[in-house]
């Protein structure tokens, strides 16, 4: 699975549960919230002030 800026957090966590650790390391502590499940990585990065390119690089390793 290629992870892109449009990947939904819920979709990512279902496909790669181990990605939760990476998301939390970047400051996305609310990944379990119902609204976060339908949020794209791009949207979440903007809300949390996270460098999207760095996040995607780490998630796709």
Automatic annotation (TrEMBL):
Gene3D superfamilies: SP0561-like
Transmembrane domains' residue ranges: none
Pfam families according to UniProt: DUF1858
Span of domain DUF1858: 3-55
Coiled-coil intervals, chain numbering: none
NCBIfam families, per the entry: prismane_assoc
Name this polypeptide is given: Hybrid cluster protein-associated redox disulfide domain-containing protein
Organism per entry: Maledivibacter halophilus
